[in-house]
Amino acid sequence: MGRITEWERPVPRYPVIDPNPTPGKVWSSLDLSEYGRIVLLTSIGCIIGLTSATRTTRTSSVFMGGLSGFWGSTTWAYMSTRNKLRGMKDNGLGRIPIEIAHQQMSK
């Protein structure tokens, strides 16, 4: 029986590029699909803000919708890229067997 403070670290199923990437490395590793996701979701937020507003609140609704879309999409892109660097998501380097992944985690 474990203590409350103990938790099991997830095992990376893909090759680990950097086990603990810095924010600068994560931001420099964003690829074109993540930039596209940021632009698309920011645009969708602006459109929702435009269509859901009245005439007097249209500008602030577009701003808040765009800001919400930008915030959410950059958070999503950051986490996705960080998980690729940590080996938790497909990073284009192939999948490794689970036994090797457990050996890497025990080092």
UniProtKB/TrEMBL annotation:
Domain of life of the native organism: Eukaryota
Pfam families assigned: NADH-u_ox-rdase (PF10785)
Domain NADH-ubiquinone oxidoreductase 21kDa subunit N-terminal: 12-89
Protein name, entry field: NADH-ubiquinone oxidoreductase 21kDa subunit N-terminal domain-containing protein
